[in-house]
Design a protein that fits this description.
Blueprint lengths: L1 H15 L23 H13 L5 H14 L3 H18 L15 H42 L1
Keywords: Signal
């Protein structure tokens, strides 16, 4: 009887462990983009200042957060913040200043790539126009020499 009671208690002790939640380990700091970053607090401040902006404080808020958007913000925060700002401006009946935060650090590579593409296309167009002008001049010269041969 005693041995069967000990056996039953041991069996239940093993089964009871199955219902205990596992220890939750903290996520690695490398998986979180803003984990130990200096901008973590700043991102939340920018978001809250955009959300709390009123018609009267909108322009001053724009000047406050522009340095963050141009120097520190990542691409996703930059895009989301600009979309929020556009929505707020539309709600207040205002507009964002032309070129507001356009020279952001996070969009620098994309802008350089776009400029290189535009310059290549302009060079192609100039070369095509030059070739067309040369062909037209050649055709005109051929036309002038053709009647003289008759």
């Amino acid at each position: 009887m005693k041995t069967s009671a000990v056996f039953i208690i041991a069996a239940f002790a093993g089964v009871a462990n199955a219902f205990v939640p596992t220890q939750i380990t903290p996520k690695s700091s490398s998986t979180s983009h803003y984990s130990n970053s200096a901008t973590k607090g700043r991102v939340s401040q920018v978001k809250s200042s955009i959300n709390k902006a009123s018609k009267d404080t909108f322009s001053s808020m724009l000047t406050e957060i522009e340095p963050f958007l141009t120097n520190e913000a990542g691409n996703s925060i930059y895009k989301k913040s600009l979309n929020r700002l556009k929505a707020k401006a539309k709600m207040f009946g205002a507009t964002l200043p032309e070129g507001y935060a356009k020279n952001a650090k996070c969009t620098e590579k994309r802008r350089e790539k776009q400029n290189a593409y535009c310059q290549a296309k302009a060079a192609e167009a100039a070369a095509a126009a030059e070739a067309e002008a040369a062909a037209a001049a050649e055709a005109a010269a051929a036309e002038e020499s053709a009647p003289a041969a008759e």
